[in-house]
Predict the 3D structure of the following.
Amino acid sequence: MADPDAAIALTRKSWNEATRAHNAHKGDQAAALRAGSDPLFPEELVLLGDLTGRRLVHLQCNSGQDSLGLARRGAAVVGVDLSDEAVAFARALSAESGIAATFVEAEVVDWMRTTDERFDIAFASYGALGWIPDLRAWMRGARRILSPGGALVIVEFHPLVWSWAGGPTDVRPTGDDYFADAPFVAPVGDYVAASGEALGAATSATPATLTTPATSWQHTTAQILGAVLDAGLVLARVDEHPHANGCRVVDALVPGPGRTWTWPPGVARTPLMLSLRAVAP
């Protein structure tokens, strides 16, 4: 059996490499935030509601751009991420932008299992759940850190998207098996360069060649919803969306309105995002 600690260490290294590449494409992000740039999308804001005075944890916050967007809306934000490179960048971005938030470097499931902190909202978005081997443990952790009446909000790429492969004109389900049980081992990609302006990259950005393997897992829609219910959370809303925010998760997608990606004309749409809100009793 593979050493889980070694796999986590490699995944951290892979994300460190990707984080450096991703942020290298984006220019002066602190200046952009000071000028009013907003990294957030309507789907998460609708589910999060009024953030004024709310205590919010952003699980797997990456480099903190979205965390700071949430803090600017009045939340007291704690961001948690495995990557020391991402957390260091987030702390510097907070200081340079003048938007206060706290960032913690930790493996997220272990942190949720042990922290004494409690929150009104636990939030995760856009490529978070696939890095978790035990989704039920992640959901139990989210339930544990929520105050009574607190909400878990997830806006995630739909698990179907990883089954689509091929080039820009080839739309076939030749990618990952939707019901795969075994982990996937591959480097974190330079999806920021591939997504261009939709993720804040310069249009001339050249994708970096990243080589350190990271380990990820497939979780079906039923497994995600089942883990929410098994954790004792009460589902308040579930939605599927025919567009992807920011990230070009399938090569065949074309630009849509508001930094989104959509299926091209003539292609039958399948969901590209899944979102939910669940409440702690």
Q: What stands out?
A: Residues 4-24 form the longest helix (21 residues). The chain has nine helices and twelve strands.
